[in-house]
TrEMBL record:
PROSITE patterns: WD_REPEATS_2 (PS50082), WD_REPEATS_REGION (PS50294)
This protein's record includes keyword Nucleus: yes
Gene3D superfamilies assigned: YVTN repeat-like/Quinoprotein amine dehydrogenase
Species of origin: Cardamine amara subsp. amara
Main location: cytoplasm
Top-level taxonomic group: Eukaryota
Region entry Disordered, spans: 1-22
Keywords: Cytoplasm, Flowering, Nucleus, Repeat, WD repeat
Bias-annotated ranges (Basic and acidic residues): 8-17
Subcellular location: Cytoplasm, Cytosol; Nucleus
Protein known as: WD repeat-containing protein RUP2
Amino acid sequence: MNTLHSQKHQETDKKQEEEEEEARYEWDFSLSTVVSSSSSSACDVVGAIEFDPTDNIVATAGISRKIRFYGLSSLLRTSAVTGGGGGVALVDQATACEYYICTPAKLSSLRWRSGSGGRVIGSGDYDGVVTEYDLEKRTPVFERDEHGGRRVWSVDYTRHGGSAAVGASGSDDGTMQVWDPRCPPEESIGVVRPAGICGSAVCCVEFDPSGRPAVAVGCADRRGYVYDMRKLVDPALTLEGHTKTVSYVRFLDGNTVVTSGTDGCLKLWSVEDGRVIRTYEGHVNTRNFVGLSVWRNGALFGCGSENNRVFVYDRRWRKPVWVDGFEPVGMNSGSDKRFVSNVCWRQSGVDQCTLVAGGSDGVLQVYVGKRKP
């Protein structure tokens, strides 16, 4: 009886392994374009990458004190022309960048403001200021300085509500500030201190993109939190399981969120009861912000790594389904401390996807993926 049970158990394990191996090859990813950095420094960290609401413009920012804007179609067309349909295009940043806006401080976060028709982008900086820029005038039109000069790590806006979109920012001061961009900067909807009086840094804030009145927060106290926007006094859910700072929280759908920690793992959580559904491991992350982005149509997660590689995980499997390394480019190839610092999925598409990744040396790499028949 025990022998029969053991055989069935082994057969089940073998079937699961075969299924996991099959799932690893559902996508073909390839490097399309490399945008070299114009900086002579090996430290030109790309701290933020964002697609605009049309998914056609890519904005990047970091310690260069510039917000750069690229046309995705131009980057991909450059690849097709230069690579002859199968190669990788290498383009200079100055050539690829359509325009840029200079900022007074280093930036850690970007997000297009909902309801602005793609005209306004918000940023969070190292001086604790949230600034919105009008992209037609290319000038700042709104500033908030509610974090006492402490670094702002994350900025986000509700995706629905049109011009009534609400904004939020997370900072080293241990607070999440929630505000209405239509109101004077000194007015606030609410101030949330997830970690209480201990004041652990708020590293990430994200509103539920499906439109539910929820906002997720990642903190240096090793926890993630989900708040009901109608009652910001206490968290509706506390996510406990990481052993180090929770640097990112992303909604995958209405039922699950993904977190990333400097304990070197990602975790998928149920928002119904706060349980861990699955833990993902493979990338290296012990101290830096390496980015986390989810492609909701394909249920794929992308993140960077401190071994200078890009990792893609499928929500169904604990191990990465695809890994690619950043190659030395130009003058920045001498550093052995480079890492992939940010990633962002284009949300369009079902059977084809686009992932943009940025490195600590300012290099951008554009990947395209196609679902296998």
